[in-house]
Amino acid sequence: MIQLDYAFPEDEEFLKKFEDVKLSTNLNMAIVNYKLNNFNDSIKHCNEVLSDYPDNLKALTRKAMSFMALCKLNEARSILMKILQLDENSEYAKKELERIKQIVTNK
């Protein structure tokens, strides 16, 4: 236990830097996995971010992108609606909601 305390000091500056690195890493892993067509892994990394920062627009957007790629339209729609609640000017969310509407209409 002493080693852990030494390895991971509990001063606020260190913890802030650690959280920033964790956030950046998960956001980067989400987009990398998305680009590699590993959509479920992308969603997992988004969920890691969203567990600490539920209103993080990048994580929400990347999660919606992954659900769209998996054709999970209801899940994507739900996230896109949340994005619009947080940012009513989100062109991405508006465009994707319209796309979902067209997909559902054409079925």
Structural write-up:
Pfam families: TPR_19 (PF14559). It comes from Theileria parva. InterPro entries: FKBP4/5/8-like, TPR-like_helical_dom_sf, TPR_rpt. By secondary structure, the chain is mostly helical. The chain has a single domain, classed as Tetratricopeptide repeat domain (Serine Threonine Protein Phosphatase 5, Tetratricopeptide repeat), CATH 1.25.40.10. It is 81% helix and 0% strand. It has six helices and no strands. Helix 2 runs antiparallel to helix 3 and helix 4 runs antiparallel to helix 5. The radius of gyration is 17 Å and the shape is elongated. The termini are far apart. 23% of the residues are buried. The N terminus is likely disordered.
Descriptive terms for the model:
single chain; 107 residues; Serine Threonine Protein Phosphatase 5, Tetratricopeptide repeat; 6 helices; elongated; disordered N terminus; peptidylprolyl isomerase; isomerase
